[in-house]
Records
---
Amino acid sequence: MMNIAEYSIVNKVVSWLVVLILVGGGLGAYEQMGKLEDPEYTIKEAKIFTRYPGANAKQVNDEVTYHIEDAVQQMGQLKRIKMSISRAGISEVSVEFQDKYRKDDFPQIYDELRRKIGDMQHKLPPGAQPSLVYDEFGDVYGIYYGLTGEGYTYRELKDYADLLKKELVLVHGVRKVVIGGYIDEVVYIELARNRMAELGISPQTIIGVLESQNVVADAGRIRVNNDYIRVEPTGESQSVKEIGDILISSDDRRLTYLKDIATVRRGYQEVPSKLSYINGKPGLTIGISMISGVNVVEVGRNLGKRGQEMMELAPVGMEFTPIYDQAQEVENSVNGFVISVGQALVIVIVVLLFFMGVRVGLIIGAVLLITVCGTLWFMDMKAIELQRISLGALIIALGMLVDNAIVVAEGMLVRIRGGMDPVKAGNEVVSQTIWPLLGGTVIGILAFSAIGLSQDSTGEFINSLFWVILISLLLSWFTAITTTPMLCAWLIKPDPKDSGSEEQADAYSGAGFRIYRSLLASAIRMRFVTLAVVVALFAGSIAGFGFVRQAFFPDSNTPLFFVDLWEVEGTDIRHTRDDLLLIDEFIRAQEGVVTTSAFVGGGADRFTLVYNPESATTAYGQIIVEMESREQIAAMKTKIEAFMEQTLPNTEPKVKNLRIGPGRDSKIEARFSGPDYEVLRELSEKAQAIFRADPEAKDIRDDWRQPVKLIKPVFNESVARQLGINRQDLARALKQGFEGTQVGIYRDGIRLLPMILWPPADEREDVSSVQDLQVWSPVLNTSVPVGQVVSEWKTVWENAIIRNRDRRATIIASTNPKSDLATPLFERVKPQVEAIELPPGYLLEWGGEYEDTKNAQDALFGALPGGFLMMIIVTILLFGKIRQPLIIWLTVPLATIGITAGLLISNGAFDFMALLGALSLVGLLIKNAIVLIEEIDLQIGEGKEPFTGILDASVARMRPVMMAASTTILGMIPLLPDVFFVNMALTVMFGLGFATVLTLVVIPVLYAVFFKVPNPR
């Protein structure tokens, strides 16, 4: 019966058609498939914001946050309430959903979340505003620009930014355009306190007039004959100047123009909520997000083209400054990886040519190119974009892709050179190897299955690695049993000097084969000594692994880093701005700095998937620094830290790199949970003291920040009641006297400007004038000083922030190591922190890198048993016996010898990617072992004396095994400069290198032991 190899050789037209389809499909797919810098993964979070003006942090926590948490807790999809932050006047609840849900599930999840939050609104206290569910937390604005203009106002910048937004959102592939950093315009009405008292005008009278004056009023319609005419009364203010012409009636019926008693002016918020500066200049940010799955590079080019056209219409002096250009980063990343793939291809082909000869080398190289093209085609069909992980997977797979083809080509080369007909040679080789090769391929795929089945965010981030390996390895098996025999039959010619089995035996008569045969024979004769040496090496590697550096995910290749500045909690945003701009000016004066982008009051928009913006607070500022090269960052960070320590000693700075993959800013976190806030602060202080005692710790802080001052006017109720003044009247007077009160809206086209009533600057900025504030007394029908209804002014301390995690009050004490790796510091402080005595009802948990690593590894190892069980089943099915699979699995741990040696020699770290490399070694080693043991069984089954059969089979399989290992190892070289893949590359290169040499010796020795093969006499 004709097998698939024979069919491929005989039916050349069909075979070449398949080749053309794979190559053509791959080339076409490369042009159109999506291109990203990092793989997409779903940020499985949402936030619920609820404003409760006037409430302190505890009131917000008890009266608002509690009910929000209670509603969210009822959702079946919930993983945990990640963090609830209660501040004065606002509740912010961050919820995280279970890892098993993917992107397509979240529209329905968010709808249910909105329903739950909507249904509980009646439980909120009077004065609390409706809750807002923010489900666009994961939007990424990958094209992120700053817009500045010397001499231009925020309004003028915003007008042009709005024009840009309308045009850019029409570019194909653009999903959303957002504008940030704008300071809102307001209409200020400055009214002196004494003037108000003199006129005997109630503040409520002025507020009532202003609130009603600018409201659109529906006057209905009147029928006049056959017409139905709309009525619109006049009186609405058409300009800010006209607001001053509004007439105010005093108690004695006198009418006074508002402009006669107050100053009406239009301006920007004096206390903005957020500010942005690009290269030290105030400006706006423009963030552009793209539709999922598009070619980011192509969309970026189209945006650049349209943006260039629009800049020709921009007012003179306005400038665009790129803060982050994902399209350019993707193009650089993809181009760099394509070069790396090309380098790996060249390396693999050169190795093939060197070991296999020109013809066979070209055959296997051609099959490799066909397989890579076919892989790209299937990746496009499965909507896998070209990004860091998928391209890295291609490089990892390159060496593995030739394994199957090498075995087939090796077998056909020996047979055809020996005079066998190519069709018969192909039939014989593929018949013998088709199922062992498939089994080995499936095992190679199953070794990565834990990645494909891992459900946490880390697993989702690297998920495409598994699918690329799956597609490429299955395709390599298919091309090995179809395309490889066809090309071998076409290009390999019989050698007239060779014929018969004797000549075939001469194919393994080279010096390398003879040396290996001699060494292996000695190892089998001294089998127990050999195994004792191997066991000793393995034990040494286990002991040595304790000295290998541990890590989670490395930092990014992109030459960006962040400078975070934390002032004392409660600091005025304008003071935070001044300090941040001082740092910004210092940074811009340093060599190698390309741009700086400063944000005050909160972080930037999420411009890359792994960037997590900080919650809004006036005490926080951040500078994004772009350098000429990544190598300059370490020295620059040291300079900045020294400058801030000297210049701003009372702040909490943090200088951090841009990450790759999931993670968080603080690598070491001690979480204390319990009921009493003061006890939690004490526990946090004890942990921080331990951190401070370690010279390698920095960035030591907790997330509850410092308590803040609170002014408490003691309300004199007995006097106030006689004057007809209640507590709300007092609160309104105090608010209006310093912060101002909104008294209406001025409509200006597309903008709505709040009208703020407050005193002149000299009264607002003089805190001692608080006694002179006027509060309206309806009994006396005049204003009286606030001092008459306040018996005492107290200043106390309060918690500005209360944080809950999973509904328990939780404080996090955190630190970072001064070096790159957190594990050494963590191992020193962990036992000391755990020795802190916890009162009953209090809990300590570890977060940071420890938790991230544990969660990722738990998810990975949770999926491993299934994958390993399938691998064991496949090996048993291949042989139908127990001893052969047992021999194979006993050799798998030998990879540890090479891994430990390699990481210690290179000073590499065993991070999450190195763990994946170690898992991939399992598949590679088992695949090689299957090929070797299959051949030993075959040789002995043909009647050879067992000792000789082991030697002959091992020699026959030495070249394919060594070739497969060599191509995989050398194909990893292009990954060594990449910080993300370097530890994985080192793990695979050293682990496979050591394990392959040992496998070629240990498997035959174990075979001799398990099958009791006697030594020859």
Note: Confidence is low (pLDDT under 50) at residues 498-505.
---
Amino acid sequence: MNYYHDSKMEQIFEGLKQPKTIEDIQLSESFIKDLILKILTSFGTVNTSTIYDITSIHWDILEQCLGKLEKEGLCAPVSGSFLFSSVQYSISKKGREKSKGISEENPYIGVAPVSYENYYKIMGAQLKGRYPINIPKEVVESTFSDVVGVENAKESLIESCIIGKGIFIYGPPGTGKTFLTAKMSDLLPPVIIPKFLEFGGKIIQIYDPDFHKKCPEQPEDPRWVKIHAPFVLTGSELNLNKLETNYNATKGVYETSPIIKANGGILLIDDLGRQRDDHDLILNRLIVPMENKKDVIYVRGIPVTVHCDFIPAFSTNLDISIMDEAHLRRAPLHVFLRNPPIADVAEVFKINLDYLSEDYDDEVLEKFKNIYCDCDDGGEGLNPTFAHARDVAQICQAVRINQEKERVDCNVLEDALQKHVLIVLQRMNIDISQITRKTRSFRIKTSQIEEAKHAIRNFGASKLSHESEAVIIDIDDNITPVQLAEYLHSSGIEVDRIDMIAESEKEIKRTIFNV
């Protein structure tokens, strides 16, 4: 037994033996016969082994139902031996006519679903008492083996998974918000879910291979699947309709929402505030599922309660005030990711080059670090991000191959930097995320000129110069003189006076075209 397959999981496996009778499978005989008839109609003539592969229904049940369909004149065996698995059945004219009406009502062909009662029982047994979780040290180490730095963030993510409480992660673009949050599901134990669920003769799809990754060990009943704790990511494409379970008439199934697909794992609402629908409406839609760990879907107008015991995660590069108190209570843990230290970004750059099996000169790592070093120390003073490290390493590979070089040298790196749009914009002092704002120029009178220059550069000034008794800066218009004064004071710098001397529009297109 281990963390990913403990005694509780083994008990559930024992209860998921493949049913051999109609009573045990908990589906009506007519439902099973209709499913078989639709397969016969689709193929015309088909082996019983193919029917088994499609439906995952035990041989004994298939033999019983096919025998009854044969007696009703809906199909007939046309070849095979004494082994039932090798027999071929063909649809009759009567069977084809009956199947047409069945398909119009319910076109679904696939794995036999699990009954709603059995689903609710098995899921309830798994999720009851799931938290708090005692996550083994080796699981934590394995999960974060490729994560550099951000120790406080790791702790918050671990603690969120231990108690099953939501987390809000925010900070500038490129600081690793999505990358880090995606690690959370590896900290959680797996769950067993049905592939499909039957309710009132209708089919609800639970298993989605796009989000659900199978575990090596699987239950005997192939209608169930053991999956790693899911990580379901939605971003700016999310709208209210996508949070509902919708009927797919072509497949004949109700396709569940991200809320239900995330059951037992993590649901990340990425880029919060950039969705087409108002983010407050989306957050309000999530409150009840987050609170009750269950959601309600409607099948032919009938409400059906399903499990959705997920850990909510929200990420944004906007201000924390995008979520109000009612929403933050459902995600009480938080992580604020600042621009990372230069050494950490350089380490991630090296890791990515190594991962790509690229040879490189030692000077390449030093040159990469230098673009983020302070201007006073001979660097370029760009804002370091983990996204730069990954992207530039990949562009370096492309440039190196294109130039037919055997290793990455400083010239390859410089070409790669000049091809990375965000680095080029930074070199031009353009912050594309702030382009709709204005730039204000301030004169800050102080006797501590050099100290003030160093502090203000770290505060985000786009341009900086000085006079005999003052520092002149350009900075975004969302920064007030009071904020400047408070920041400088907290940095141990005495300020005599701050005056705004100019205000101008940012013009990204003109700047680019003139370069």
Note: The CA atoms of residues 248 and 254 lie 6 Å apart.
---
Amino acid sequence: MSPTRKTTTPAAPAATAAKPAAKPAAKVKAVKTPTKTTPAEPAKRVSGSVAFVGIGPGDPGLLTVRALELLRDAEVVVLSENGREQLLSHCPADVAVVDGAFDAEGSPLTPAGRAKAITNAVKGGKRVVRLVDGDGAMTGHLADEAAACVKAGWPFQVVPGVSPVAAVPAFAGVPLTNKSVREVRVVDVADTKIDWASLASKDATLVLSGTTDRSLVGSAVAKLIEVGLDPATPVITTWNGTTTEQRTVAGTLADIAAALPAGTLAPSAVTVVGEVVNLRETLSWFETRPLFGWRVLVPRTKEQSGALSARLRSYGAVPEEVPTISVEPPRTPQQMERAIKGLVTGRYEWVAFTSRNAVRAVREKFEEYGLDARAFSGIKVAAVGEQTAADLAAWGIRADLVPSGEQSAKGLLEDWPPFDEVFDPINRVFLPRADIATDVLVAGLVNLGWEVDDVTAYRTVRAAPPPAPVREAIKGGGFDAVVFTSASTVRNLVGIAGKPHASTVIACIGPSTAAEATEHGLRVDVLAPTPSARELADALADFGEARRASAEEAGEPVLRPSEKRTAARRRR
């Protein structure tokens, strides 16, 4: 073994023997070198991106389809300088939100600071949507923010939005061109190097952006007159454009500034100068809506959808929803549980739904037990009101009986068939309803020969009072109208906030609601022809239209009810 040890051990080798021993070592080193420098797997590429999305001048309905797609897929949203938090409803529930106007200390963000906030947000591979008021491509600081993304190596895209330059005049009833005026010139009055002489042309429409207060408008029109534009040239200034808070003042170069309210108008205020302004008298379509600018109170349950508010908004109103009722499960659920079991086992010939809440209560119980609409097979279903019937249809159930006349328990009884021992194998009706419902329907069905399981499906509890400013507006005439959708909303609103002011228009969804309002000393001005949210909004709009027409016919200014208060109180 000793010769072997001597050949492998480098201790005291001869000079000639050392050279062969060095070669294997060199080979080992050469083989290992590539292994150390070759990575085991490629590095992962960061997938973060930024989309600069123009969100238009104010109306959320003016978003582009592409903007909606990006919002629905966003992981981080950087709000615009004007907030626009309502657009977050299009985003995933777990979206992170970054204030695009102020930093963590509450100081206004500069374009550089905002660019830093954007690049910080995109770190970690997040999909970031930066909301930009109006059209992002026309916003000056967008270039700085996009350049910051380029510098940091983040990919980005720009989604144009509806520009206030065109949208706000359009909503004010002023097209920027016509057959005789084909040129439009746009200038930001914040620019200190404007060549006003080059802008003063009677053959072009001039759009002044950045006219955020009366002094800026006054300075601009003074310079236009100074460079030779006719002082009688028509002018409009519009602020809060495309929203139900939109306001427009019309005049001439000589008097427009004096006609405007003092102080700040709005960041997006737009002034239009030129002959096309005269078209407003015939083309005004937005501000002449029947309820334009009306502040309408919508008492509701916490669970109700905004269908009524959406319909009111389509007529130009500004709805404010105030919860007056909270719908809660019954205190003792056993009665409801027995009724559901009886429905499945064939105990009932009819099920009568008198409200949307009743439909929801039964459906929730069905889902709790793993049942679906197939359990209604062979059972006749009645519904009061188109919304109740619509909720049943959404569940896959078509109502067999809906009142042909008055949409109420009374109207349902007028159409309900009497029990017939020959044609009706079962004589029992399941009636899920509120704990405070009247007995009119039960008594009527019993008189028709039916047996009724009158089951408390849900309880109605009075909601907490609204904030003090809302209560003061209700009692002081700050609202133009109140729309009552049930007798309980009347009782509860009066209970938590007091009676509406005498100047406020009272609109009711049906006769029983109107009777409750009268009982509380309120004069009912509007009654829906059929009890539905859509008909109620339409009826209020008809009232507003008639009121406007009457004022115009009398040569009087068109004022909202809250602008025409009287000291008279409603008769008690």
Note: The CA atoms of residues 382 and 401 lie 5 Å apart.
---
Amino acid sequence: MLRESGTRTPRRAAGRGGRAGSSFAQGGERRIVTALCYDLVGSTDLLHLMDMEDYQDLMSAFQHATRQSIAAQSGVIQHEAGDGGVALFPIELDARDAASLAIRAGLGIVDACKRVGREGGREDLGVRVGIATSIALVRDQSQESGTEEPVTGAALAMATRLEAIADPNSVLVSEDTRNLAGRSHAFVFQGSKTLKGFAEPEKVWRALGHKIEVDRFYAYGRVTGPLINRESELAAIGSLWDGVLGGRGAVALIEGEAGMGKSRLLRELRRRTRDWRANLLFFQCLPGGLRSTLHPLLHSFPAETGQMGPTAAAVQALFERNGIVDAEVTDVFTYLLGAQGPGQPLQNDSPSTIREKAYRAVDRALEAICRNGPVVIAVEDIHWIDPTSRDLLGEAARIIYRFPAFLVLTSRPGLPLEWLDAAKPRRLPLRPLDRDETRLAIKAKWPQHRLEALPELFEVTERISGGVPLFIEEICQWVAENVDAGRKSLSESFKPTHLSAFEAILDARLEHLGSAREVARAAAAAGTHVTLPLLRALLPDFGKKAIAAAADTLCETGFLTRIRVPGPIAYGFRHVLIQETIYNALLRKQRQVLHRRLYAAVGENRSMAAWIDTGRLAEHAERAGLLEEAIDLYIAAGKESSSRSAMIEARQYLEHALTLCGRCGQGRQLESRQLSALTALGPILTGLVGLNSPPARKLYEDGVEIARRRPMEEQANWFPIYWGWWLTGSDFRVMHDRALEVQSMLATTEDPEIQLQVNHCIWAIDFNLGRHRETQEAIKAGLALYDLRRAQKSRTEFGGHDAKVCGLGQLALSLWLTGRTKASDAALSRMIVFVDRIGHVPSKAHSLDTEAVSAFYRDDFEHLAHISERMAEFAGKHGMQSLSGLALLFRGWAEAHRGDLASGHKRLRDGLELLRSLGAVADLPIYLYMHASLLGRAGSFATAIEVADEAIAKVKETGHAYWLAELHRCRAVLKSRAGAQKDALGADLGAAADIAESQGARALIRRARRSIRELGVVVRK
């Protein structure tokens, strides 16, 4: 450990300011310092053996050579004695640079001592060198004189103690120095030594030499080299930041392929804003995160031992650390994250209510974190963002201008970004470096003498890297570590393909790391995040210490970085491209072995890797070749997502489970898995695409085909499949026949939920057939069996919506049609209150459709316009295409009746066209009625009559009869306006009155009679 510090990767002081009582207040500041102590061996004995003048000349030559070695590595002599001295290495440098330069100087002193001894005829001349690093107090240089740096700290004393125990002509270094310079130098462990004046033993290492002449930038893993070809981007960022400092927020989008320098530019932004910002929030989107809800935020929570996912307390603690103490904000994100803990205040809210609260929470969170001054919010790799995070990030981007906040996003190019359009982000596309810029990048990283020794370096690097900065870095580093200093040509094994060269470079670098290569491969299979316990499970033949040492080596060589989290030490890859490349280089069998081990370990003990959720574990099982286990996990992940109303993610999981089923052949167990996946997917698909859409219809037909092959005693288990099969029938006669078949099949069941859902079938089909008495009786009987606890499961299986929501909505429509307006209003109000309480997305979509139809019945155009806007917003958020079509259709109807006939009619036609393309036209006769009516208002009577004819023919074809009376009345009105004789109208008006009367539809009877009076038609019976 660094003295007076708890970190192995020390940071320089952020600035020179300090508070009262700090070291700076006393005339200095705390810095990381590396000290070197050297001393000749047996110099006193030499004085007695040599002539005094010869001895003095030898000492002068030694000290001169030593000063040259130290100065050549930017060191500063602290004090000098006749045969030894102490030097410090520049505090202006990065701590890794200083440590490595000190070791170079120490090895140089040893070489200089040997040379001086040979030249002075003293082959036995030897020197001992000790080097140590620590936190130290560096006093203000302006108050001192000379070139010395007044320093108080443990480094000086420890370097002296290490020098005292070193063997002649050797360099001993402390543990901290070795950790900082481990990437550039080789060491041999000398054991733990008890040093005078230090309470605890110190691990001591002997420096062997530099690792094949690697230059400073690559040796020490710095990211502070010059940026090449990024001047315009930096200028744009600076301009936007100036606006943020003035109080107006901004959004910047940095776009570029992997390795193009997005993260490097982001680090430069963070460096340049450090002294002015009050806070920095950093979020990382990860590969595979598209289906993991809010995973960039979830990744901010360390996994606690034995805990799956964050707790509510962890969410509150994280938010409070960032100045967010608003309980409503914390509650919203606790719910969205699925955090574990007491209380679920939002679990009964509707999706629309939750969304509104989430938007308010984003607003309040931004206000809170900006309270103390400007902030930078960075979100990397949004091409991997999940839908929920994308929605909230889009809202944050939309309102960011109100706050002193700089939202910076990075993405690979080609991502659809309509959700960011409202924020008008400043786009900063990064292009590859051209030939000249590639040369500049190499020159910035290589000493001139190495460039002269390797004349091919420019050409080969340009050819292999394609101007990608990360590739340039890795190629140069590989060459530096593997090509001898005197060699004049590079290996011809480089391939012209950039990625192939990159794979070869990484593999070659790993090959020199021994067992660390296998640890890197295991980490790549694990994903972007791994711990030592998980690595031990993946590599059972490796010892605990060997894995830990290998992980440290991978960190020192730049492959991994340590992630600061509580609990077991965690590691992540420095760049996802490195992880992907190492993983892709593995043979398929090697991958399968690693994934199988991970699946076994995590499946048995989920707390071992709590960041691996059910969907991620399913991916590991699939890659392990354990397809049946993967199917089960994908189904479980789909149900988990559905339970959180993450319907798009749920659909992705379940459809993939079915795809895997198709690869597994046949068998009874496989059929059960297929039916389980279909049962869960069906309601999601009907909600997203539409009840009568071809995909939904095919899903249930496939499901019934499988279910019928199962034993009779299992049929009740697959009732949701039969129910969906009924619901997606091609027409109402087919639905009626299927309903009777389902009812007959399950007539003997005593399960109240199945009885309820059978009534659900009956009221839905009887309503559309115009049988209102039967409809209302079925609703009454069914809702008497309703149980809220059972409904939480069944609403996702039976039609994708809640039976009570459907029953109350259908009752409201039926009551209005039968003339009971007040009772209809009451049922509709009960439906709206209830659906908002249960917070089930497809049920809310169902209720919005019902509200719209009710307003349509009543000619309430103002209310219909408002509902259609809500429908459109809801459909957009949840990706519901059929609801989008309905929103267009109803909004067009309302708009046409509110004064803009042409625009409204076009919108209605667009909605109808979308519904037709989706196959979601269960209410097609009504949609055609609306189309015909608007054609008539526009004076296109002949076309309008043709559409009315089509609608009536459709009713006869499908049995969709409850609006048939209105269709006949509509056609009669259209014919009248077209100039037809009154005698020609009687048949339609008579049919309208008779059909309405037979159905008990009093509202439609009144309409038919009013038209008979207005048109002056005598209807013969």
Note: DSSP finds 44 helices and 16 strands in the chain.
